[in-house]
Amino acid sequence: MTATQKFDVVVVGSGFGGAITAYHLAAGGASVLVLERGPWLTADDFDHDFKLGSSYTRIFDFTVGDGMSVLAGNCVGGGSVVYFATMPRAPGFVFERHGSIGRRMWPAAIDRTAMDPWYDRVSEALPVTAQDWRDVPYAGGLFAAACAHAGRTANPVPSAIDKPKCTNCNWMMAGCKFDAKRSLLLNYLPAAVANGAEIRPLHEVQRLSRTGDGGYRVHYNLVDDTDYRLSSPGGTIEAKLVVLAAGAGATPVILQRSEAELGPMPHAVGRYFSGNGERLNTAVINDERAREVLGLDRGDGLAYRAHQLGKGPCVASWDKLDPALPEYSRFSLEQLYFPPGLGTILAQAPGASGPTWFGREKKDMLREWQSWLTVFAMTEDDNEGVFGPPPATGNAERIAQQMLGRGALSYQPTENTRRGWALSDADVKEILERDGIARVAPWSNDLVGAYTVHPLSSCRIGDDPQTSALDDRHELRGHPGIFVTDGSAVPGALTVNPALTIAALAERAVPGLVRAAQQRGVKVTYGAPSPSAAPTVAVASRG
Amino acid sequence: MDDDRPVDSVPTQTLEAFADTIIPGAQRFPGDRAISGVTAEDGAVAAGALAVLADPALGLADALNGMAGLLNMHAGDYARKHDVRLDPTVPAFVALSFDERTALVQDLTDPGHPEREVWFGAALFCTMAFDSAPHLSTTDALAQGHPGLSLIGFAAPEPDGLWRFPRFSYERALADPHPDTTSTGSPA
């Protein structure tokens, strides 16, 4: 038996919440270990391939729950490796939301003005840049033109994409082969490693317990490189400070499983989960009408028929992000691409007389796949998700060797949430069915419940101990030395893509983490430069 | 029935009929019973649905025979309930017409059905077989003229097996931006 390893800080998860905190703590002088349950892949390993066992299934998880399915990253770099790199800031009214508790959800210390410097910091590091219309693929252009035709506005959305390197291949969910997507593999993680942090992939943290000296013992399993259903006993690591950043679908599960040894968890651990109010509609565009009504022409005889190409969501309509509108009626709409497979089964054939998601009429709809335009709504939900008892290991009972599992999340949408979805569905229809441009139907919620690619809030910050698991410095109430910095810390739905907000909150949490580490005798300082100042060399693949 | 053709096992015929209900296709030979033949082009069966369902990487392989049995039991119940006379020479689900199979699959995947997750899972894998061919490398599938990828019009990669779309944009402003857009390009 080997001696127990000790680090100043163990970071659980290597997405935005883990990579950013790991970099700053390592750069400040702490010894840092990052434990990541997924594999460590880089550009050379990313495949343009739907084949089972390619990067598409290795780095991406689809966890089915009761009423809510969650899509999330499962690799070093976490969500940043599989995301679409769309990086808007959350609108100001979001921070004033009351949500299900009838009073302000966010800590008093945080509003948009307080967040802007942290948004700036992340935007410099990745970097995030504005897009102009020449960067916008046909799908985004078509959506913008339809918005304009309906008397609406539409914006190219800021993104973390190195545009000259981008081929508009739309394989972003399989990892970026061209290193055009500015994932954490290109900035915070190599900078953390350069400053001495160690990253161990395929290490799945199961629970925490206490050491005798006020620190924590982190218990992990080793996950098989190919068949994630197989895991073997790993070991334990001791740390003075633990940063949980396993994602909103996993962080609360680790804490639930730790409760027997750590003692009671705050009520909000595993509650108040938000799916970011997400909702999808698929439109089938009439190419002739797109030409006649919207004046679109690709120059090759087609007006559109370009669903396959692009780089995720590039254009958003923010007309309904109006602070004067009542809560639960505000949302943004974004043009989106979802690959075949998971991206087609839930799309319903508009106006079908028989079944909408399979059968004859669905096949007819698939025939027009290149004319599809997917529109993504991010609304205000009611934080109604609750995690049931944890599975034996990890955050899901894995069904397939990769990608597919059954989790313990239950989500029964309230009237408020349903209203937001209905309003956004109606708005998409109003924009895209005008003058016969398209036929539109929402994705089915009858098969796997609702779905989200942006799980949030299952262990959230706040000022009220009854409704928040973390204080406004992200420390777990009643368990000093445990911090949570991932999407689970965000108090509620953001009405826009949340990655930049999750990252900015992690940057904001770092000074408090450094102080807590110092108080525990760790020699660490705060003030490392942006990782963009360091050479952006990709981290070597390992493990 | 083509006499030279070996008879497929009950589970195979049953699961083919299920896959054909999800994405229907053309019959393979005169008298094909598993495939109803309600459309002219190939469907989920020709796309490889059974190979995907049986792929050990997906978690249903060991359950397939049981699922076929269960499906035939449900088909028998359906026939009794709706007074449908079943041909006893083929599995019960295969004996149903396309529309009857469709109605039964709708029942089995209804939000209130206790087996919904099993049948949705099977339908998901049949759909994936058709529109993403996860049992094949995508480049090979396209080169072989995979029926689903061909039908959806999935564009082929460049010779090195990677996708690039050098022409991708209308390259002009197509809407006015929101008046409250900040200097960073975000909403206010």
Automatic annotation (TrEMBL), chain A:
Pathway this chain belongs to: Steroid metabolism; cholesterol degradation
BP-aspect Gene Ontology terms: cholesterol metabolic process
Positions of the Glucose-methanol-choline oxidoreductase N-terminal domain: 65-271
Protein name, as recorded: Cholesterol oxidase
Top-rank lineage group of the source organism: Bacteria
GO molecular function annotation: cholesterol oxidase activity; flavin adenine dinucleotide binding; steroid Delta-isomerase activity
Keyword vocabulary terms for this entry: Cholesterol metabolism, FAD, Flavoprotein, Isomerase, Lipid metabolism, Oxidoreductase, Steroid metabolism, Sterol metabolism
Annotated Glucose-methanol-choline oxidoreductase C-terminal domain residues: 452-506
Cofactor(s), names only, from the UniProt record: FAD
Family under the similarity heading: Belongs to the GMC oxidoreductase family.
Native source organism of the sequence: Actinoplanes auranticolor
FAD dependent oxidoreductase domain span: 8-41
Enzyme Commission code(s) on record: 1.1.3.6, 5.3.3.1
UniProt cross-references to InterPro entries, sorted A to Z: Cholesterol_Oxidase, FAD-dep_OxRdtase, FAD/NAD-bd_sf, GMC_OxRdtase_N, GMC_OxRtase_C
UniProtKB/TrEMBL annotation, chain B:
InterPro entries named in the record: DUF5987 (IPR046029)
Protein name as annotated: Uncharacterized protein
A Pfam family that the UniProt record links to this protein: DUF5987
